[in-house]
Amino acid sequence: MLTAHIRLILADVSLLLTAYSRPILASVSLLLTAYSRPILAGVSRLLTAYSRLILASVSLLLTAYSRLILAGVSRLLTTHIRSILAGVSRLLTAYSRLILAGVSRLLTAHIHLKGVGVSLLCGLLIGCSQTPRQCSSNIVTTWSSAYQSINQDITTLTAAEFQGRKTATEGARLTQDYLIKRFTAMGLQPWQSTFAVPFSYQHGFSTASGVNIIATIAAKNRSNRWRVITAHYDHLGQTASKMYPGADDNASGVAGMMAIAAQWQRHPPLDNVNLMIVATDAEEPGLYGSYALVALLQQHSLMDIELSINLDMIGHPDRRRAIYMDGQKNIVDFALIKPQLMQQTQLCIRTHRASLLSGRMNRTDWLRASDQYPFHKAGYAWVYFGVPPHAQYHTPDDTISTLDIHFIVAVTETVYKMLSINTLTKAS
Description:
By secondary structure, this protein is α/β, with parallel strands linked by helices. The protein contains ten helices and nine strands.
């Protein structure tokens, strides 16, 4: 009976909940909606009221335990610092000898470098012994007669009757006659049966011809040692309305070469070195005179060609008033020789032409630009002296009036000084 009554009661309750669940839930929802703001406001007021108490309690806790916390941190740091210091002490003790040895070596090296630096400074700045003078734009020359002869040679070679000295022209023939007359007057001797040594070459689709003028000064003592000076005498010739005198290119080089020959003839600096002086032809169309000369030299295997010096455009210096040189790698101990070359004339010798020029000039292949190249290809040691191209280069304005004759004299004295050094190349 009791079980039956309980079932009836549960059934009634279920029916009541089912019937009134929605109204109950709706009432609860209405109550929450109605009182949510007052409830939240109350909670906010409670938090505001008690926040100071909460913060005060936290502050009291931190204050109460701060000493304990700091004491713990201090004990930890003290413990580790002692360990760290003990470790460092052990390392220093173990490696002290090595450290001291390293410091000693560093100090020794520093003192040595300092001493070397002082020595170099002394040598460079005050000249501890006999340091050569530095180069200068105020050059000094001692060959009093060379100025007049160089000036006269350039004046003659650039005269209108020489017609610009183009290869295989009447102007070229007149130039050859003049050079032979000058060599004869100086007492030079021809290398072969005559001073004039003709050659032929292929130019384009035709065969052309040229004439090198070759003179020699024999060594006082019989020797196979030879040094060669070259300077091309040909130029661009003339057209119907223009004549190209070629004062710098290359009457200057020819005149300088003849001044060197005259000085060598009067005062030979070496008794066992033969000197060959060559005015080459057909340089302008393709270095053909130099190629022909090298081919002849190669036929004389007993001739020991120690060095070839080429002079091309040595009369129109740039604002630096320096002579530019290439081929210094062929000279033994050039770094030591260079100050000697500059000492007498104070003429600046620059060996880094490319870094000083720009544009077309900087792109010029200086090795292949003149008569030194055939010597280079054949394996002969060579040196080239010249100035950079200028506004008058290969124009009708390349006249003697644009040249610095005093500068040319200084260049010839410098080249003569180089030729006078006995041990100049590995072949010397």
